[in-house]
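Form 7-S
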Amino acid sequence: MVVKTIYADVQPYIKSYTFEDDISLEVTHRAFCEIDALLKLSRYVKISDNIFILLDLKEWSDYLELFLYRCKPDFV
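Output:
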Protein backbone atom coordinates (compact mmCIF):
# COMPACT_ATOMS: atom_id res chain seq x y z
CA MET A 1 0.00 0.00 0.00
CA VAL A 2 1.47 3.34 -1.05
CA VAL A 3 1.01 5.98 1.64
CA LYS A 4 2.78 8.86 -0.08
CA THR A 5 5.04 9.43 -3.08
CA ILE A 6 8.23 11.36 -2.36
CA TYR A 7 10.89 12.28 -4.90
CA ALA A 8 14.47 11.48 -3.86
CA ASP A 9 18.01 11.19 -5.16
CA VAL A 10 18.88 7.51 -4.53
CA GLN A 11 22.52 6.40 -4.67
CA PRO A 12 24.37 3.11 -4.09
CA TYR A 13 26.14 3.24 -0.73
CA ILE A 14 27.94 0.79 1.58
CA LYS A 15 28.01 1.07 5.35
CA SER A 16 27.67 -1.59 8.07
CA TYR A 17 25.51 -1.35 11.17
CA THR A 18 26.16 -3.80 14.01
CA PHE A 19 23.48 -4.59 16.56
CA GLU A 20 23.29 -6.72 19.69
CA ASP A 21 24.32 -10.37 19.42
CA ASP A 22 26.71 -9.51 16.56
CA ILE A 23 23.92 -9.04 14.05
CA SER A 24 25.06 -6.75 11.27
CA LEU A 25 23.31 -5.26 8.25
CA GLU A 26 24.91 -3.49 5.36
CA VAL A 27 23.32 -0.33 4.04
CA THR A 28 23.03 -0.76 0.27
CA HIS A 29 21.67 2.66 -0.70
CA ARG A 30 21.15 6.15 0.62
CA ALA A 31 18.58 8.68 -0.48
CA PHE A 32 18.33 12.43 -0.19
CA CYS A 33 14.87 14.02 -0.08
CA GLU A 34 12.85 16.88 1.35
CA ILE A 35 12.04 16.78 5.06
CA ASP A 36 8.83 14.83 5.63
CA ALA A 37 7.40 13.94 9.04
CA LEU A 38 5.93 10.70 7.65
CA LEU A 39 9.42 9.37 6.86
CA LYS A 40 10.45 9.87 10.48
CA LEU A 41 7.71 7.41 11.47
CA SER A 42 8.20 4.95 8.63
CA ARG A 43 10.45 1.89 8.75
CA TYR A 44 9.99 0.71 5.15
CA VAL A 45 10.42 2.50 1.82
CA LYS A 46 9.49 1.21 -1.63
CA ILE A 47 11.64 2.37 -4.55
CA SER A 48 10.59 0.99 -7.94
CA ASP A 49 10.02 -2.72 -7.30
CA ASN A 50 12.37 -2.91 -4.29
CA ILE A 51 11.49 -2.65 -0.61
CA PHE A 52 14.05 -1.14 1.75
CA ILE A 53 14.29 -1.01 5.53
CA LEU A 54 15.08 2.48 6.78
CA LEU A 55 18.03 1.78 9.09
CA ASP A 56 18.98 5.36 9.86
CA LEU A 57 17.82 8.86 9.08
CA LYS A 58 19.74 12.10 9.41
CA GLU A 59 17.95 15.41 9.33
CA TRP A 60 19.94 18.28 7.89
CA SER A 61 18.80 21.91 7.72
CA ASP A 62 16.74 21.50 4.54
CA TYR A 63 16.75 17.79 3.60
CA LEU A 64 16.79 14.23 4.96
CA GLU A 65 19.46 11.62 4.36
CA LEU A 66 18.07 8.08 4.51
CA PHE A 67 20.23 4.98 4.95
CA LEU A 68 18.51 1.99 3.35
CA TYR A 69 18.90 -1.79 3.44
CA ARG A 70 17.41 -3.61 0.45
CA CYS A 71 15.18 -6.52 1.42
CA LYS A 72 15.22 -9.81 -0.44
CA PRO A 73 12.95 -9.89 -3.52
CA ASP A 74 10.50 -12.31 -1.84
CA PHE A 75 9.98 -9.95 1.15
CA VAL A 76 6.28 -9.12 1.55
